[in-house]
Amino acid sequence: MGAVVMYGSVSVDGFIADENDEPGPLFDWLSNGSVPLDESGVVNVSQTSYDYTRPYWDQIGATIVGRHVFDMTDGWDGKPPSGIDHMVVVSHRPAPEGWDPEAPFHFVDGITPAVAKARALAGDRIVEVAAGDVGGQVLAAGLIDEVRMDVVPVVMGAGKRYFGPVDAQHLLENPEAVIQGDRVLHLRYRVRR
């Protein structure tokens, strides 16, 4: 099975969005370069960020997000972002009324069944877990193998925390990657078992 990886862009003080769910400059690094990271024509990064991020994106078999993110993005109109094959949405509610049953989105009640469903869908590829409340819950449950963060040089002061409401200490190993891009620092840590 592939690794379960918690991932997201984050401010230097640990936030993935402000108190109004706005990311501010956290995704600026995804549009400040000249190298296309995907087919959209919108996401252009530095060569260094491309060399680090593209191989990771290519390994993702399924991504887990919370219902809040799903609702904020209008479910990406039924098309997972960045070429991801499957999205698993942690939700106590079913798919929205009128939702296309053929869209590669799976609504699962609870983080443990969500990780199991994502692993089944991903096979030997990576299961990505979005940072924030759901990611923090998956970390607290001991189901995260690796933490990847794109640290952006901004102090937000308050907002939505990268690790959500985690209230216990979790040790990470020494960084396996520390890559400086343009207005971003890419970090990768294994979770200590």
From TrEMBL:
GO biological process, one term: riboflavin biosynthetic process
Record domain Bacterial bifunctional deaminase-reductase C-terminal: where: 111-170
Pfam families per the UniProt record, alphabetical: RibD_C (PF01872)
Domain of life: Bacteria
A GO term for molecular function: 5-amino-6-(5-phosphoribosylamino)uracil reductase activity
Protein's UniProt name: Bacterial bifunctional deaminase-reductase C-terminal domain-containing protein
Origin organism lineage: Bacteria, Bacillati, Actinomycetota, Actinomycetes, Mycobacteriales
